[in-house]
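Section: protein folds

Sequence with per-residue tokens
===
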Amino acid sequence: MNPSSLLWVWTPLFAGLFSGRDSRPDLTIPVVLYDPSNVEQILLSFRDVYANEGRRSITIFDIAHFPDDSSWCYVTDAVNRSGLNPLRGLGTVTRKPFIDLSYLYRVPAGETGREVLALGARYHDMDLAASMPAAGRPLCSHLHDAAILAHAEGLTVTGILVAESNVSRFDFSLFI
């Protein structure tokens, strides 16, 4: 894939953990930071991307707790357990009143992905996480919110979860 065609979105937790890394990915790839406290702004940013570049793919990175020894995975679907809808209150901003999430995530051909539980800001509440029936699914924070907003603006989303313990040695070259 041509790095000039890439756009990465990092959730706050991913960006925070990544900031301690010794090595950086190819910084010619634009990185958008998802700010859950300003969803209208990120929605409009995604709209600008679509207006300037059309229906393009973006990759959203988030951290996760895995129930096994996985170091990362593609996301195929997410169960929103955050208690919030990222589109709530944005009816005057979004293009459509209903967003079909049936095919929200794209997994590259030949790859497999996993269904995850999206906890939003409650991600670090391990008592809550332990009480949820995860059925072997990874737990993540804001990936699903960012994906819904990007999808609402016509972008194709690839979701990647990285284990918290693996962020420091995560190999971005796999996605360039």
